[in-house]
What does this fold into?
Amino acid sequence: MWKYVGIGLCRRGSGGSVTLHVPNQVNRVLKSAVLGAAMNAVGGDGEFSRLHERWVKNGLTARMARRNVARLQTAVLWGMWKSGGEYRCDRIARLLEPVTVS
It folds into this structure.
């Protein structure tokens, strides 16, 4: 799904080396909509914005953090569509909780 939307990565390998790239054949209208929604979410004051800030603080570039937000939003929408459920911010907020290693 992410590859179709244009926010996923493809692996291309030759001679033992593998590179990652964004696919060329994507639904460009959908890609623009998804990335635009991610830009709005990052500029806001919600869970997606806090996740973006966390990823940037952990060393991810702002561009890749926005792409991660777009992937997460797309996955949430896909899940809501498949289940017929409603958006539940508590599920996204769980991603913000500190990770404990035992």
